[in-house]
Each structure stands twice: as C-alpha cells, then as structure tokens.
Amino acid sequence: MLVIAALVFGALVGVMRARKRGGNRLDIAQYAAVHALVFALIALFASIFISR
C-alpha cells in the first residue's frame, strides 16, 4: 500500500516539477514516470526495512 501511494505521489511531484520548468507533454510524462519509479523504489526499500 505504501508503494502505491508513493508511486502516485511521485507522479504528481514529477508533473508539478515539469510544469514549473515549462515542459511540453512529453517532458511532463517523462518527469512523472521517473519520479514515480524513484519514489516507489524508495518506498519499497522502506517497506522491506520496516517489516524486518
């Protein structure tokens, strides 16, 4: 559950960051995808650490 929330939050952060920098549609999509993956990966490791 934490990973999915981080994925969505990361995508929103990426969209806001790309829009702030004046990116077009593809820039916004790329920022959203990369931020979503990074946030989800961090949340995955945090979940593993918490469960141990």
Give a description of the structure.
- This protein has 52 residues and is an all-alpha fold.
- The protein is built from 2 helices and no strands.
- It has helices at 2-20, 25-51.
- Helix 1 (2-20) runs antiparallel to helix 2.
- The mean pLDDT is 96.
Short description:
By secondary structure, this protein is mainly alpha-helical. The protein has helices spanning 2-20, 25-51.
- Mean pLDDT across all amino acids: 96
**How large is the radius of gyration?**
12 Å
E-strand count: 0
Please summarize the sheet with the most strands: none
- What is the molecular shape? elongated
Strand-and-helix sequence, N→C? Answer: HH
> What share of residues are in beta strands?
under 5%
Number of helices: 2
- Could you name the ranges where pLDDT drops below 50 across 5 or more consecutive residues? none
Structural class: mainly alpha
Helicity level, as a percent range?
over 70%
Spatial separation of the terminal alpha carbons: 17 Å
What are the defining features of this structure?
2 helices; 52 residues; elongated; mainly alpha
Secondary structure blueprint with pairings:
Elements: H1 2-20, H2 25-51
